[in-house]
Amino acid sequence: MANCPMFLNLKGRKILILGGGEIATRKLKVLLDFTKDITVISRSFSDEMQKLIKDNKLKNFKKEYKQNDIVGFNILIVAFNDIELQKQIAKQVEGKNYLCNFADLPENCDFNLGAYLKKEDLIISISTNGGAPSVITQLKLWLDKKIPNSVIDFIKEIKKERLSLPKGEERMKYFRNKTKDFFDKLD
Ligand SMILES: C[C@@]1(CC(=O)O)C2=NC(=C\c3[nH]c(c(CCC(=O)O)c3CC(=O)O)Cc3[nH]c(c(CC(=O)O)c3CCC(=O)O)/C=C3\N/C(=C\2)[C@@H](CCC(=O)O)[C@]3(C)CC(=O)O)/[C@H]1CCC(=O)O
Ligand SMILES: NC(=O)c1ccc[n+]([C@@H]2O[C@H](COP(=O)([O-])OP(=O)(O)OC[C@H]3O[C@@H](n4cnc5c(N)ncnc54)[C@H](O)[C@@H]3O)[C@@H](O)[C@H]2O)c1
């Protein structure tokens, strides 16, 4: 079965990235759009990772991984270039309360990071369920060109108007019709 798309509130979640190479850096860049409460552990960091750590004042430990490093964290991104070590960590977290993503163990992943488009309050998340990452990269760029700025302005307008009208059947009908009209005219 496919993974369920959910929008996770990262407030108060403790995130640990294990690894300081290309993959760890790519995943860190995604997460930094949503939280700065991230810790990184690796025996080395790429130049780009070092800059991200400095710019965002991230907690970091340049060291060899030790088993108890994961204690106290909620979300783990495991991107060491050592598959045996990834398997060891997968065993260690079995049955425990962690949400994990492993760079080389898709069958052990509790989640994938999809590609996303973020234009103010509009977030479009896309996934190929792990099967074709190069497609989502290009599809994201294609969608970016297709969505006009008027949609972003329309979202702002609706958000503001929703606050000023009382909740209920009438309001629902009003917004459904108004939004349908807007999209009918967009085509
Ligand atoms: C969204 C994004 C976020 C991120 O950075 O993580 C992401 N991949 C991105 C780009 C990308 N990745 C790769 C290429 C080169 C082309 C190619 O190889 O196809 C390109 C495209 C490019 O560079 O153009 C290589 C690659 N990726 C994975 C494998 C392993 C495998 O397939 O087994 C290999 C081959 C490794 C090898 O052969 O060595 C696996 C995963 N990549 C995922 C996410 C997850 C599934 C998402 C889904 O499709 O639902 C998953 C499962 C990881 C996970 O989250 O667990 C980011 C988009 C950034 C953006 O534009 O926003
Ligand atoms: N899922 C994906 O999207 C995807 C794509 C390409 C590669 N990969 C896999 O992801 C893994 C990481 O790839 P990469 O390109 O980032 O590798 P990399 O060599 O650039 O980085 C690996 C990092 O792990 C650190 N490390 C390794 N063992 C450690 C230990 N015991 N203690 C502390 N630090 C340790 C290294 O110092 C380095 O910073 C590889 O196994 C690769 O096969 C996954």
Automatic annotation (TrEMBL):
<dbReference type="GO" id="GO:0043115">
    <property type="term" value="F:precorrin-2 dehydrogenase activity"/>
</dbReference>
<dbReference type="InterPro" id="IPR036291">
    <property type="entry name" value="NAD(P)-bd_dom_sf"/>
</dbReference>
<comment type="pathway">
    <text>Porphyrin-containing compound metabolism; siroheme biosynthesis; sirohydrochlorin from precorrin-2: step 1/1.</text>
</comment>
<dbReference type="InterPro" id="IPR028161">
    <property type="entry name" value="Met8-like"/>
</dbReference>
<keyword id="KW-0627">Porphyrin biosynthesis</keyword>
<protein>
    <recommendedName>
        <fullName>precorrin-2 dehydrogenase</fullName>
        <ecNumber>1.3.1.76</ecNumber>
    </recommendedName>
</protein>
<keyword id="KW-0520">NAD</keyword>
<dbReference type="InterPro" id="IPR006367">
    <property type="entry name" value="Sirohaem_synthase_N"/>
</dbReference>
<keyword id="KW-0560">Oxidoreductase</keyword>
<dbReference type="Pfam" id="PF13241">
    <property type="entry name" value="NAD_binding_7"/>
</dbReference>
<dbReference type="GO" id="GO:0004325">
    <property type="term" value="F:ferrochelatase activity"/>
</dbReference>
<dbReference type="GO" id="GO:0019354">
    <property type="term" value="P:siroheme biosynthetic process"/>
</dbReference>
